[in-house]
Each structure stands twice: as C-alpha cells, then as structure tokens.
C-alpha cells in the first residue's frame, strides 16, 4: 500500500464560524443524533461517531461504542475528512503517514480502521464527519452498500443540524419580537405616566428612568444626568445607580460630557478600558458597558440618558434602538415640563395682575375725590366720584363707569 503524506490543514475561519453558528458544541445528548450513530454501528458492525472538528479539538455529538466525548486535534482522524469530497477510508491506520503516529493508534484503543463521511453544510463547509472505526484493519474497506449508507446517514445528520439551527433561529426571532413588543408597551405606559405627571420634573424624570431600565432588560442601572453649570448631575437614577442620586461629574473630562457637547450617542463596550474616561470614577459607579444618549430641552442639549451594565458586551442593537426611543421620550418630557412651567408662570402672572386690578378698583371706588386716568390708546378710566362730578362718562352718560 502506498503511504500518503499528511497534508497540512490550515485554520479555516469561515468553516469555524459556520460551526459556531450551529451552536451545537457541548450540549447534552439528543436522541435524533444518537439514533443515527446506533444505526451506523449496526450497518457496519463497528463503533460509530458524529464528530465535529473545532479549532483545537474534536467533539463527539453522538457516539456508540467509543467512550471519550472529545479529543484534541492531535488524536483526530476526522480532521482529514475536512478536505475530502466523499467518504474517506483508511484501511489500516498504522500504514498511513497521516495516522500512524496518532496516540489512538499507537496506544489504547489501538484503532486500525477508519471511514468517515463529511458533514457538509448547504453552504459547502465541512463541520466534521459521521465515522466508523475498528480495532482491526479492513484491507477491502467498507462495501459499496455500506459507503452509500454512511453517506445517507451523514446527510441525515446535516438535515438534523440544519433543522435544529432553523428552530433555534425561529425561537430567537420570536423572542426578539416579544421583547420588541414588551419594549413598545413599556414606552407607551411610560409616556402615559409622564403625561399624568403634569409637568412635575422629578416625577417625569423618575418615570422615564425606571421605564428605560425596564425596556432595556440587559441594563442593570440607569440615570438621567442634567447639566448644571460645569457639571452633569445625576437627577434621576434607578437600578444599580440608585444610590448615586445627586452625583456630580464634570462636563469636561467625562464621557457623558463628551456626549453632551457632541450631541451624539456613545456606545462604550468597556469603560474601564476606555482612555476617554477616568477609571477611578467609573469603577466607583460600577460602570462597564454603557450607552450614553443626549437629551434635549428645546433646541439645546440639556443632559444625558445613561444605561449601564456590569457585563461588558451586554447590549444588543435592539437595546440601542430602545434606548434611543427613550432618549427621545426624555427630551419630550423635558419639553413638557418646560411648557408646564411656562403655563404656571403665565397663570401666576395672571393671578397677580388680577390682584393688582382688584386693588386698583378698590382704591378708585373708595377715593373721596374724582379720578380720571387717560389711556395711551384713547379713552379714560373714571371712578364713580368723577362721573358724579361730570354728570356723565367720557363718551356720555352711558359710559359713566370705569373698567376694572
């Protein structure tokens, strides 16, 4: 027999990414895969394995007649299937340069025969093999029928993997949709509570920060920081930041200050490693992964909505979208409080003006002398005594009254 030199096997990142996308490594046994290896063992009358070749190991999704659940790549024969288009057969592992020094060949269990059918994805990546192994050599290899059966069972393994991935993707999509609907419901509920707060700034901010924390489930802390002079002040807090109400951070030299000045969102995967922040300050606040979003009042950036997690990399794109939505609600809430304050000032001004008018009316009514106050736009204001003295109002007897 001609000895075949081993072909170098480079790391195929695309293949490894495809393997990772199936999320199949290390979960507990599954009956569908176990049934296939038991059938392969029966057809070939030798141990059978579903082997998945990772970056530095091969892991057996299912096995029958072979106790180990994984080996390192130095002990792997299945790694040679990755470059094959069809079933790889090695009639005598001790006579092939690729395997003669393999510890599974030279030591227990002293393997001699191998046949493996590639597990090929619809995209063409080989994830591993459905293989059969024996302790005795098989000079003639498998029969043609056994080869065809092994290939058919390998296709069944891939069908199981593809179906498993499709179900997982469907479940993920359903979970994301439910999460999105829950976020929308939280936003609607929060906006209703903001409206009910009738412009009370503290109530509005408290409602918004707690709503944002509920909507972005990956966050464990939230704060709304408003600018006061050269500082940003934690005006409303929730979650892990609840104990930091009133904390002041400088606008200059803080990541929140950068967000405020630029008016742009900042996504910081790990604040302890970010050169733009003061590590001692963020460590005291327990900040790691942060979303910072500018919030406006009128045409000016008035503060920052901060959502944080102690876990680096916790936030998803969906979380960022929800945070952006709530930042808009914070801006709307601040505008509402400004409008409510303007209405209160207008109402108070009207009340004071009414008091002044009433006081003027009392003075005019009780004055013992006639009083006439000319208006710049024409006409005059007369008290009763002046009307009596004139015998009629400015325009005649019918006008002989004053306007309070």
From TrEMBL:
Name-wise, this protein is: GAF domain-containing protein
Q: Which Pfam families match?
A: GAF (PF01590), GAF_2 (PF13185)
- Domain annotation GAF: ranges: 28-171, 200-344
The organism encoding this protein is: Methylobacterium phyllostachyos
- Please give the superkingdom of this protein's source: Bacteria
Under the heading SUPFAM superfamilies, the entry gives: GAF domain-like
């Amino acid at each position: 027999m001609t000895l075949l030199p081993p072909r170098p096997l480079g790391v195929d990142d695309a293949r490894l990414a495809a393997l990772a996308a199936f999320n199949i490594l290390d979960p507990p046994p599954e009956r569908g895969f176990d049934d296939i290896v038991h059938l392969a063992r029966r057809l070939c009358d030798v141990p059978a394995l579903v082997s998945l070749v990772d970056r530095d190991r091969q892991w057996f999704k299912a096995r029958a007649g072979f106790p180990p659940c994984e080996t390192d790549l130095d002990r792997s024969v299945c790694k040679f299937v990755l470059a094959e288009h069809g079933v790889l057969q090695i009639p005598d592992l001790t006579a092939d340069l690729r395997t003669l020094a393999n510890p599974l060949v030279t030591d227990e269990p002293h393997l001699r025969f191998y046949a493996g059918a590639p597990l090929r994805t619809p995209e063409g990546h080989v994830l591993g093999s459905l293989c059969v192994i024996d302790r005795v050599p098989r000079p003639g290899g498998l029969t043609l029928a056994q080869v065809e059966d092994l290939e058919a069972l390998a296709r069944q393994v891939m069908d199981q993997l593809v179906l498993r991935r499709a179900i997982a993707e469907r479940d993920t999509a359903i979970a994301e949709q439910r999460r999105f609907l829950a976020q929308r419901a939280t936003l609607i509920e929060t906006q209703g509570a903001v409206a009910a707060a009738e412009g009370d700034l503290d109530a509005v901010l408290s409602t918004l920060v707690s709503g944002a924390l509920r909507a972005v489930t990956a966050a464990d802390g939230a704060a709304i920081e408003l600018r006061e002079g050269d500082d940003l002040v934690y005006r409303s807090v929730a979650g892990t930041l609840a104990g930091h109400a009133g904390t002041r951070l400088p606008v200059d030299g803080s990541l929140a200050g950068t967000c405020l000045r630029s008016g742009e969102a900042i996504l910081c995967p790990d604040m302890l490693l970010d050169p733009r922040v003061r590590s001692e300050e963020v460590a005291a606040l327990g900040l790691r992964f942060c979303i910072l979003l500018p919030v406006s009042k009128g045409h000016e950036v008035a503060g920052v909505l901060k959502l944080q997690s102690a876990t680096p990399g916790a936030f998803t794109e969906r979380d960022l979208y929800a945070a952006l939505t709530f930042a808009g609600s914070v801006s709307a809430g601040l505008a509402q409080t400004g409008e409510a304050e303007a209405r209160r000032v207008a109402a108070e001004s009207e009340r004071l003006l009414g008091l002044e008018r009433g006081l003027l009316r009392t003075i005019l009514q009780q004055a013992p002398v006639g009083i006439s106050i000319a208006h710049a736009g024409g006409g005059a204001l007369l008290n009763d005594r002046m009307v009596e003295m004139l015998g009629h109002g400015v325009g005649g007897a019918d006008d002989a009254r004053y306007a309070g």
